Amino acid sequence: MHAKPLLLLSLLLFFERECTASTANKFFVDQRPNILFLMVDDLGFNDVSWRDPRMQTPELEKLAFDKHTVLLNQSYVNQECSPTRSSFLTGIYPHHVGVQDGVFQIMEPSGVPTWFKFLPEDLKTLGYGTYIVGKWHLGYCNESYLPTSRGFDKHFGIYQAMADHYTHFSGPITRPMRELAGGSDFGLDFWYQNVAQWGYGDRYSTDIYVEKTKLFLEEHDKSDPFFLYLAFQAPHFPLQVPKKYTMNCKQKTEDRRLLCVVYNYAQPEIGADMFGGGSGAAVRVGKYKLIVGNPGYFNDWYEVDATDINWRNADSYKPQGPLDSKVFLFDLNADPTESNNLAEQLPEITEIMLELLKEIGRSAMPSVHVSQADLRGHPSNFNNTLASGWCNYVD
Ligand SMILES: *[C@@H]1O[C@H](CO)[C@@H](O)[C@H](O)[C@H]1NC(C)=O
Ligand SMILES: *[C@@H]1O[C@H](CO)[C@@H](O)[C@H](O)[C@H]1NC(C)=O
Ligand SMILES: *[C@@H]1O[C@H](CO)[C@@H](O)[C@H](O)[C@H]1NC(C)=O
Q: Which ligand is located closest to the Cα atom of residue 149?
């Protein structure tokens, strides 16, 4: 959907809980940790201070190099929102959930099929309090697709991808959808327990999400553990940040500078490392990684000069002819930054891995996406909101 490397930075924090010795058994030790999972949307691999000193993310850096931190530097995520989020919450590859080919659109009459169980549903059976603050993006047209139907006790945030960080209004992303819908910023997408939140019209999303996180944790019954999924929308565009917030960001282009400021602003709350793979399809066997199709390319959206890690050659990732026919083969031992395409040099290995990819593809579930926007979901039917409750769920 967005032609840029969409990497998600996420951090999983486990907190030991104070032993709540039960009166029945004073030796009972509760081994259920509190879990805080932070997802940061669109953060690039190099957009952290330990890879690019001009990005100021000292709190993240502290967390990343804490002695208790496990830094996952070879984990792969899908480059887009809905597939990545569905993997996290179901534990299943996107192509086995039917969301392999992109993100859910506004007015799309679809969602992650309800027969897939989500992580908080399991945690609830263990007695956890379960909360999500921020972005959902796994379908919203039927109430059964909403966070509160998928194991979360509480949700405050947006159903869709990219609301304005101040007005909390969203619009259809693609041009055909915009034409159909008649506008770009046309529906409020801000919800608490599925009730539209009109009272936050001038406040920045990150501020509100931090506040709601604290509130949920305060309200949480401390005798049980919690699972809190904090899914910031920032720094996903629109690139907005409070004007009063001045940081020492010296990037050359306005977008890059803004990005630096936005990260700075979000980062005291976030941390750790997930390394995103490509879109299209990819498979790794031992040291070899094969990518077919669009691996994600730099699109001039921001400058990429600030790195001493040559993480792929920007030029080779600009669209040159049909991306779907591109095949990349990398030797990750010799070339961990994936800059040397061996596909032509090693045709046998390439062939075997292409076969493997096809084999994996055969197990894919048909896509659940519906490309035609459904006007039943038009915000004008719902007091100008992206409300739920206008489609049937897939069964
Ligand atoms: C990944 O982490 C391991 C263990 O911390 C380290 O030895 C290795 O060099 C790292 N690899 C990269 C590519 O950063
Ligand atoms: C409908 O929208 C207006 C803002 O345009 C808002 O003030 C009002 O509370 C909404 N009504 C309901 C029932 O949510
Ligand atoms: C949600 O989907 C179910 C199953 O298809 C359907 O029975 C129900 O009416 C839908 N809800 C709404 C509000 O359309």
A: 3
Q: Full-prediction pTM beyond 0.85? A: no
Ligand 1 test: best mutation among 46, 68, 73, most atoms within 8 Å of CB?
73
Q: Are 42 and 117 contained in the same domain?
A: yes
Q: For 306-343, what is the HEC assignment?
A: CCCCCCCCHHHHCCCCCHHHCEEEEECCCCCCCCCCCC
The closest residue, in CA terms, to atom 8 on ligand 1 is 73
Mean pLDDT score of the chain = 79
Residues annotated catalytic, as ranges: 81, 137
Positive or negative torsion for Cα 232, 238, 239, 240: negative
Evaluate whether residue 140 is within a structural domain: yes
Asked whether residue 331 falls in the same domain as residue 256, the answer is no
Question: 269-292, pLDDT tens digit by residue?
Answer: 332 222 223 346 788 899 999 988
Neighbours of 64 (CB within 10 A): 18
Number of domains in the chain: 2
Burial class from Cβ neighbours inside 10 Å (0-12, 13-18, 19+) for residue 272 reads buried
Domain that holds residue 179: 9-18+31-277+365-382
**pLDDT tens digits along 109-138:** 999 999 999 999 999 999 999 999 999 999
For ligand 2, whether the C-beta of 196 sits within 6 Å is yes
